[in-house]
Amino acid sequence: MSILKGIRVLDCSIAMAGPFAAQRLGDMGADVIKVEPVTGEWQRHAPAGGAWGKEINVSFLSLNRNKRSLAVDLKAPEGKALLLELVKTADVFLQNYRPGVAARLGVDYETLSAINPRLIYVSMSGYGEDGPYKNYPGQDLLLQSMSGAMMSAGRAGEPPSPAGQYLVDAITAYSAFEGALAALFHRERTGEGQKVEVNMLDAITTIQMQELSVFTVGHKPQARSAEPHAHCYIRAPYGVFRTKDSYLTIAMAPLKLLGELLGDPFFENLQDQTDSWTYRDEIYARTQAGLMAKTTDEWLALFRAVDIWAGPVYGYEDLVNDPQIAHNGTFVEYDHPTEGRVKVPGFPIKFSKTPSTIERGAPRIGEHSREVLKSLGKSDAEIDALLSSGAIRQAPELQHA
User: Least enclosed by CB within 10 Å: which of 19, 198, 220, 378?
Assistant: First the structure.
């Protein structure tokens, strides 16, 4: 049995962070009902990379497995009433509306907790529910740029470089996921629900626990060097280097040992914990020059033999075909009714007794509207009337199921 079986989640979120958090709950067995507009959630119409798919684009597909879709118009009185009825049956309500929208819709914590005091209400925002930035757009790149992290890597004087993934969205999703689990555990002990607030700015800030403590407690300024360096608070060499045929990364190699392998006497008398900061730029330049003599595979064999921390630089094709990835079962494959056979990242957390599984792929718009409403005791005639009024929507091929 899945670890969260019997837990019902109402996912009223859009884009990445909220749906990703809800998907993690679904992966662990929760019954996640994606409550989306009758036109479909925003992400259905905004595919990353232009990957549209057949009926469901890849962005939506990747963030909404293990969910049922209830397509409902919350601005229609009948639609709003259905959601409030569902709230009585729910354990977790998750939303990432802009501050103030939940209250205008009548789905704020105060309203819903009065209906269901055991409800865990997860509210996600860009910058917090109040304060001077509460109405600013909470978008991943904008939060990356505010986080300070971009100024910890690269060359001084060159433009900061964003992360190569939707970093803030992912960290915020995991913060919300963690908060929901913790609140559920609290409820098991006490019987009481509560509100859980997560915002993107705090999430990306607090994940830099070590770096910011070096700044605030250690009083070390954030100073990028003239040569490329992967993090201003890590000693040289630390970064990406070109080799004879491609690239590799080196992390904090013992300087004397590195010099021996490179054949460069400059490293012979350097002290790791002092000179690696003083000569950071020269260490980079000499390491880079020396690495051009051999291929990446040749260097990796030499470095691994003496336990110098080094690794290859992968693209996605390399990652997907890596033997450790295959051994771990990092990717999973399943058949989707409209998109066919799909291969996607799987489950990062492994449970020995309650493993995560894919019970269903990302739903079509309103695919489960009838099914969800029947669980509330609605008759076919009542559901047909709601469909006719436009208060809900169901996938066309299931209209008369």
Answer: 220
Q: What is the pLDDT of residues 60-94, one digit of tens each?
A: 999 999 999 999 999 999 999 999 999 999 999 99
Q: Are the C-beta atoms of 340 and 333 separated by less than 8 Å?
A: no
Task: List strands edge to edge, sheet with 247-251.
Answer: 238-242, 247-251, 310-312
Report percent pLDDT > 90 for the chain: 98
- The torsion angle over the Cα atoms of residues 300, 304, 308 and 314, rounded to 10 degrees, is 40
CA angle 19, 22, 28 (to 5 degrees): 140
pTM over 0.90: yes
Q: What is the DSSP string of 109-172?
A: HHHHHHH-TT-EEEEEESS-SSSTTTTS---HHHHHHHSSGGGGSSBTTSPP---SS-HHHHHH
Q: How far is CA 72 from CA 82, 173, 339, 367, in A?
A: 8, 24, 24, 11
Strands (E) in 138-266, as ranges, are: 194-199, 238-242, 247-251
* Residue spans per domain, the chain: 8-206+327-398, 238-242+247-312
* pLDDT tens digits, 267-292: 999 999 999 999 999 999 999 999 99
Q: End-to-end CA distance of the chain, in Å? A: 28
Question: DSSP letters of 306-347?
Answer: TT--EEE---HHHHHT-HHHHHHT-EEEEEETTTEEEEEE--
Burial zone of 352 (CB within 10 Å; 0-12 exposed, 13-18 middle, 19+ buried):
exposed
Confidence at 1, pLDDT banded by 50, 70, 90: confident
Looking at domain 8-206+327-398, does it have CATH number 2.60.40.1120? no
